[in-house]
């Protein structure tokens, strides 16, 4: 016959061979194969559960990371604000110290100028007195020949000049 129409004997022997193979597989290999399939199925289910747990944990970590990042940003803002306040306080203190120092130096300078002014006045008075005495002496020498009258005249002029100043 041919391949398209098989012979009944061939069908019988093929069915018998398949039955024996099925019996042997069922007796010795079927439990192992089913057990392997179940183990594989459990492993896949466990892997899927683990993947879902990992996905959830990753989502939680991302949320926590975002919260920590927001918290760090808020802390950074607070720290920068505090640093700016501290900077402004230090600048104000430095400005106040500079103003105090400049006022102190200005007061000292005024005091020195005042003392120098007084000293210059005293020197000018002494110099003016000396010039006046010399001029008076020359004038009086010509006018006064008497020494006592001369000294009285000079003393009265000095007292008069001193009382005016």
Please tell me about this protein's structure.
The chain has 165 residues and is mainly alpha-helical. The chain has one domain (30-164). The protein contains two helices and no strands. Helix 1 (8-143) packs antiparallel against helix 2. It is rod-shaped, with a radius of gyration of 62 Å.
Quick synopsis:
The protein is mainly alpha-helical. Helix content is 93%, strand content 0%.
Considering DSSP H and I runs of 4 or more, what fraction of the residues is helical? Answer: over 70%
- Estimate nothing, just give the exact number of structural domains: 1
Q: Mind summarizing the main beta sheet?
A: none
**In terms of per-residue confidence, which ranges show pLDDT below 50 for 5 or more consecutive residues?**
none
Which labels suit this protein?
single chain; 165 residues
Write the layout of secondary structure elements.
Blueprint: H1 8-143, H2 147-164
Helix pairs in contact: 1-2
């Amino acid at each position: 016959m041919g391949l398209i129409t098989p012979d009944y004997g061939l069908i019988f022997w093929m069915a018998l061979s398949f039955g024996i193979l099925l019996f042997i597989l069922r007796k010795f290999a079927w439990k192992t194969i089913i057990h392997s399939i179940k183990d594989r199925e459990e492993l896949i289910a466990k892997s899927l559960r683990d993947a879902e747990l990992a996905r959830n944990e990753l989502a939680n970590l991302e949320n926590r990371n975002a919260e920590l990042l927001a918290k760090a940003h808020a802390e950074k803002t607070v720290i920068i604000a505090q640093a700016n306040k501290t900077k402004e306080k230090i600048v104000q203190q430095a400005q106040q110290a500079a103003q105090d120092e400049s006022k102190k130096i200005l007061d000292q300078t005024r005091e020195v100028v005042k003392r120098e002014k007084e000293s210059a006045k005293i020197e000018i008075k002494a110099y003016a007195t000396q010039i006046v005495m010399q001029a008076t002496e020359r004038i009086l020498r010509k006018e006064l020949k008497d020494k006592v009258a001369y000294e009285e005249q000079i003393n009265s002029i000095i007292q008069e000049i001193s009382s005016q100043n």
